[in-house]
Amino acid sequence: MHDAELLRRISIFHSLDDALLERLAAHCASRAVGEGHVLFTAGEPCRGLYVLAEGRVRIFRISPDGREQVLRVELPGNAVAELPLFDGGAYPASAITTEPSRLLFVPRDAFEGLVRTNPDFALAVMRALGRRLRHLVGVTETLAFRDVAARLAHLLADYADAAGAKPGQPAVIRLRRTQEELAMELGTARESVSRAMKTLRTRGLLESMGGGKLRLPDPARLRTFSRTG
Question: Which pTM does this prediction carry?
Answer without folding.
Answer: 0.65
